[in-house]
Specification:
850 residues, 30 helices, alpha+beta, Immunoglobulin-like, eight-stranded mixed sheet, binds zinc ion, five-stranded mixed sheet, Neutral Protease, domain 2
């Protein structure tokens, strides 16, 4: 029987989180949402925050109870008035239920008297900041917590008198009363709940006006030189980003104001709350002599968060399965806009960092596609990771190349205009672009966006034709893409530079008789995505004649091949030791900072992960000597620092450990001319030395602790000190303490501490933490912020390659066959590198005995 047009709709199930079903129903029935919110924040951070809410909205029809999301204890709710009548509090499965009897068609008003939930308020001793992405607004106050029910907010903050604050809208009125400060903000623009935010506390405030725009920055830095050194650049970078985006999009900055706050130990690099961006303070306030990399990262971060004002905040994803769209545009725009500020940097070369990061997931068994399903917002955190931040920009670059820059830009402008102050899906954009382009973008998107993985490229020559083809390890997909390839004729001074279009049909090139002996640089401009055949022999042979970009691409691909266990034993494959020698050769002559940085990074990774202990011990004296010598020789302060960090990272010989100790103490004979160590550097050095010189650990950490000037840095160090202890019982107790959610509150501290707990020199003692760390994962996914589950896994599994470590992970997955699919993928991603290292090391072990 068919019941067409039946009105007897089923009630939406009341379940934890925000289900897609609930969100769709609310989107169809609710509109014109406004939140009036008042928070009274006591100075003492262990006292509760009283709050009042007045929520108004339009309801299309009243056919069932209405669920407001509130992920807190019901006891926090003190009173509820619906449309003027007091209503008993009905609380179920993280929802405050508004019975349909009290609701009406059209305008409704709901008043709630409550204590604010604190799990996402990040309350510290002297400040707090909200961080509600992706579905955490509902942890603080009752709301419709879904990105496509945009609302206006009228916020009132009642704060200690000495505090400053920043929120989404400009301040309307300020009143000082009884030692308290009452800030009443204007009505905000139309924004999603995850973008509602305020920061309040003992912050210093700086205001600057550039190009007619006045911006305010809050910060807690105590080093005035550091502030003076950085502040103007920070403002200028924001102003330049806004100006660039207005030009590219054709849309003026769409919100009422633009401020930002620098927060110590912030969970991420930044978060793009409308008009009130939050940043990790150290990402913007740099130490002296920052490397080009650091300067570029800072500019990119600022550009990224600013780009979100258009991509994400003006047009928002309809549901968090498309959160990647805002991230890819922010990254993509950031890459485009930092160029003018850094003419001396090779941006194509810098773009290669996305490949390393995307491959780190795409080469694993747990690889995820860019676009994923998301049945409930309480799993939205799992959408985040290297694939959306790093593979998506690569995909977007290929897409722009495919349809052309102008069509691409026109498509984005239409998208922003069509969906401004509203929401859109990825298919909405593809539809716009598809109309404007000849290419079949829907098929294209199916592979690049909806599927995981990367192709293997193969180049073969037969009968005067070279053929470049793709294979897919997990099926028969083809990744349509374009990049450049170079062929060098060894017999004569001849070469070919080709623009490859690789897709369903293999790419071919005619090779005349003179092309019998030649070298191939398969992906010379680095744009191609996949594993290309290795070309180790070309590195030293052609290094001097390669462009910076070609060098970077070659190094990237060489390393990808090095960590393919299946490659080892093949004729053209280098062992880790052989490749390390090549890298040592490179760092003697390479001038480009980005390439140098990549080479040093690979050296460090191979040294700790792909050499066995005997090999490492044998290599250490000469490697330490080389890095130290290069540091002394370097004229450029940033390169000097780079070599110093590498030197202190790899050092294991007694002599050099003592030398580092003397540098840290500040002994006069150990001072290195031109090397400036900031307080953060000293803290890092002390931590490193505490692990390497266990008999001095207590002395080092105590002295360092008492020497720290910055109070936030001091709290951080106090937290990680037990992880640096030479006493196993202290470290065990520290790990044990992480089982308590409260002790995981400042996630960046936890991650630093874990890195020391699992330092490569302590692998045999720390392998026992793997199992409990996996057992904690589901809890961490519930309580932690979006990046924490993966970072937690990386910190706990990343460096482990022993048989025992591999078996622990495998047993865990076997014992939990019905484990959450997304979290299982994350475990596979984090465990992947150790598995590769294990396979390569055990293979080497098998062949060495003769
Ligand atoms: Zn972002």
């Amino acid at each position: 029987m068919l019941i067409w047009g039946c009105n007897n709709k089923e009630a939406i199930k009341v379940e934890k989180g925000v289900s897609l079903e609930l969100a769709q129903w609310r989107k169809a029935n609710i509109s014109m949402v406004n939140y009036k919110l008042e928070f009274r924040v006591p100075e003492a951070y262990d006292q509760q925050i009283q709050a009042l809410e007045e929520l108004t909205f339009n309801l299309k029809e009243v056919d069932q109870d209405l669920q407001l999301d509130f992920k807190e204890d019901a006891s926090k709710l003190k009173g509820l008035i619906v449309n003027g009548s007091s209503v008993p509090i009905l609380f179920e499965q993280e929802h405050l239920i508004l019975p349909k009897e009290g609701l009406k068609e059209g305008f409704n008003k709901v008043e709630v008297n409550f204590f604010a939930g604190e799990s996402s308020l990040n309350r510290k001793e002297e400040f707090l900041y909200t961080l509600f992405v992706p579905d955490r607004a509902r942890t603080a106050f009752p709301c419709f917590d879904q990105p496509n029910l945009k609302a206006t907010f009228e916020l009132k903050l009642d704060l200690p008198n000495s505090w400053n604050a920043v929120a989404n809208a400009p301040v309307g009125t300020v009143q000082i009363k009884d030692g308290r400060k009452q800030l009443e903000y204007q009505k905000s623009d139309l924004i999603s709940t995850y973008l509602f935010s305020f920061v309040a506390g003992k912050f210093k405030s700086i205001t600057e006006t550039i190009g007619g725009r006045t911006m305010t920055m809050l910060h807690r830095e105590t080093d005035e030189n550091k502030v003076a050194r950085n502040k103007d650049d920070v403002f200028k970078l924001h102003a330049a980003s806004i100006q660039w985006l207005e030009g590219y999009t054709g849309i003026k900055y769409p919100f009422k104001k633009f401020d930002f706050a620098l927060i110590p130990s912030f969970q991420y690099g930044g978060m793009e709350h409308v008009g009130a961006i939050q940043y990790q303070a150290n990402s913007l306030f740099l130490d002296e002599d920052p490397s080009q990399n650091r300067l570029l990262s800072r500019a990119s971060l600022i550009a990224h968060e600013t780009a979100h004002m258009w991509f994400g905040n003006l047009v928002t994803m309809d549901w968090f399965n498309d959160v990647w769209t805002k991230e890819v545009f922010a990254n993509f725009m950031a890459a485009k806009m930092v160029n003018p500020s850094f003419p001396e940097i090779n941006h194509d070369l810098n773009f290669l960092k996305h490949y390393s990061s995307a491959y780190s997931v795409d080469r694993t068994e747990g690889a995820n596609p860019i676009r994923q399903e998301l049945p409930n917002l309480n799993e939205a955190g799992q959408m985040y990771g290297a694939i959306i931040y790093n593979k998506a920009p690569i995909m977007m670059k290929q897409l722009e190349f495919l349809i052309g820059e102008e069509v691409f830009r026109a498509g984005l402008q239409e998208y922003l205009k069509t969906y401004g102050m509203s929401n859109a899906t990825w298919p909405n954009l593809i539809e716009i672009l598809d109309k404007k382009s000849e290419a079949d973008l829907k098929t294209w998107s199916e592979v690049w966006v909806n599927s995981p993985g990367r192709p293997d490229f193969n180049f073969a020559v037969a009968d005067g034709t070279g053929t470049l083809s793709q294979t897919d390890r997990n099926g028969d997909k083809v990744w349509p893409q374009s990049f450049r390839m170079k062929l060098y004729n060894n017999g004569r001074k001849d070469r070919k530079e080709l623009q490859v279009v690789s897709g369903g049909d293999p790419y071919t090139v005619a090779l005349s008789n003179s092309w019998t002996d030649f070298d191939v640089l398969h992906n010379s401009n680095g744009i191609g995505y996949g594993l290309f055949p290795p070309a180790y022999n070309m590195i030293e042979k052609r290094w001097e004649s390669l462009s910076d970009l070609e060098k970077g691409s070659l190094l990237l691909n060489a390393y990808e091949n090095l960590i393919e266990p299946a490659n080892h034993g093949q004729g053209n494959q280098y062992s880790p030791g052989q490749y390390l020698e090549v890298l040592q050769w490179i760092i003697e002559r390479e001038q480009n900072q980005l390439n140098l940085n990549r080479a040093i990074g690979q050296i460090t990774s191979i040294y700790w992960n792909l050499l066995d202990e005997a090999q490492r011990t044998a290599l250490a004296p000469s490697l330490e000597k080389q890095l130290y010598g290069l540091m002394l020789k370097a004229d450029d302060a940033a390169i000097k620092k780079m070599f110093f960090n590498a030197f202190s990272g790899v050092t294991i010989t007694e002599l050099n450990k003592q030398h580092l100790f003397d540098i840290w103490v500040g002994t006069s004979h150990a001072q290195i001319e031109g090397l400036k160590l900031s307080e953060n550097d000293k803290i890092g050095l002390a931590s490193n030395l505490a692990v390497k010189m266990p008999d001095k650990a207590a002395l080092i950490t105590n002295k360092q602790y008492h020497g720290i000037q910055n109070p936030d840095a001091k709290r951080r160090f106090a937290f990680i000190m037990p992880a640096l202890s030479d006493t196993a019982a202290v470290r065990d107790a520290f790990f044990e303490s992480l089982k308590d959610e409260q002790n995981r509150e400042t996630e960046s501290w936890v991650l630093s501490a874990l890195n020391y707990l699992h330092h490569p020199l302590r692998k045999t003692e720390s392998v026992k933490y793997i199992k409990p760390s996996l057992e904690l994962l589901q809890g961490i996914q519930v309580t932690g912020d979006i990046f924490f589950p993966k970072r937690w896994l990386d910190a706990n599994l990343g460096g482990h390659s022993s048989d025992e470590a591999i078996a622990t992970v495998e047993d865990f997955l076997k014992e939990n066959p019905n484990y959450n699919k997304q979290l299982k993928m994350k475990i596979q991603q984090s465990a992947d590198f150790g598995k590769r290292a294990n396979a390569i090391l055990s293979r080497d072990k098998k062949i060495t005995p003769r």
